[in-house]
Each structure stands twice: as C-alpha cells, then as structure tokens.
C-alpha cells in the first residue's frame, strides 16, 4: 500500500458524468472519505478557470485546481499559484495561421474564452457541453485581448488536411485531441503531470505519493508519472494500456473501487 498524499482527478469522463451532467453522490462520498484521511484533492483538467469557479464549485471544494492541461493552477480559494501562458510569438502566429486557413481558434483567458478565428458551426454546442465555451466573446474583429495579457491556452477545431500543415510549425506546442478534430493547444513544457509535480513540491511529497484518475489522451502524462495511475472503464485504449488499474466507468463508483483496490481507503 502506497502512502498517498494527493489524488488528482480529470473532470470530463472521470468525475463529471456526461449522462447526468454532474458529479455523482457516490464519487462525492469517496472524495469526502479521502479528505477525512488527510489526502489532498486536486482537479486536473483541460477545463478553463472560469468553468471551475462557476460549475465545479457547486459540487465540491477541491484543494487545488489544475486548469487547461497544466498551464494554470489555483488553490482552494481560486488564487493563482502557477501560470505558463502561450508566448507572444506563438499567439500571434496562431492568429495569423488560423485566420488564413479560416479554422476555429479560441484563446482561453482566466475570465472567459475569446474567439479569434473561424466559424460558429452547430457542432459548437459540443464545446459548450465540454466547458470550453461558457463565458465567451466573439473577438474576431478586434483581436486585441492578447495585448493586455497573453492567453493561457487555446481551443481549436481544425480540418485534418490543414492540421497537417499547421502542427509542424509549432514543435514546442502540444496539441491535445479532446474530440474529433478538436484540440487543446498549450506549451509542451506544461502538462497535468508537471502541474501535479508542482503541487507535490508545494505540499512536501513526491509523485510516488500521488494517484491520478483519467480517461482521455491529455491524461496520459499523469497516468504514467504518478505513483498510481487509474484509467476509468470508459477510457480510451491508450490510457488503459498505461494505467496501473482499470476501474469501472465514470458514474459507476469507479473511484471508490480503485481506492479500495489499492487499500487507500481505511
């Protein structure tokens, strides 16, 4: 049995049930039991800060919030602990490329998302569901918000043929697929794993004392790096292959099952 000090949870497909659109009571009960044992609880998501503040806080107050795949960390009171935004050059180049190719580009800032390029297709209802829409401003004419402060990350929708042209131009940026031709864009040096490591240093423990739960490609770094990596039953095959344990699907009490399996819960 590992001496677990921190548990990190992805949101979509791990904690947040897409069928009921909430965190289930069984999972909330498990989170409370972990907290009673002194284990710190962290969100590790591609979700932006504004979603975390407005939506997740309705269900539970976590000790830490890792947002936008590791580019931004907040404490329980939503105070910034860490930030690694896109560079000025990358921001300007992305605006130029996505405007030229007429592809969807939304920059994520702490307060809202700003659309810089592309159309607003009906499929964007999916982006609303995933929390990558929420507080939103159509900024395609102005394109000035990044001059106040640099974006934390970007959300894009790119046609496959155009993606092949764009991606090689950004070798130091990570393009995390979250659905179909939708990608989260952030610096390669940022990841959920690196963010968890930052928190571990902050609270005085090691990555071996961390357990991570996830289901999608952007969870691979923490699934592989934490002392225990748990894949949900609904996870993509790549995540399941790297996990130490595959538990029940989201909404089926899988978090509790994994904690009992590893004897984390007394």
TrEMBL record:
Gene3D superfamilies: 3.30.1240.10, HAD superfamily/HAD-like. Pfam families: Hydrolase_3 (PF08282). InterPro entries: Cof (IPR000150), HAD-like_sf (IPR036412), HAD_sf (IPR023214). One of its GO terms (molecular function) is phosphatase activity. GO terms for cellular component: cytosol. NCBIfam families: Cof-subfamily (TIGR00099). This is Cof subfamily protein (Haloacid dehalogenase superfamily)/HAD superfamily hydrolase (TIGR01484 family). It comes from Breznakia blatticola.
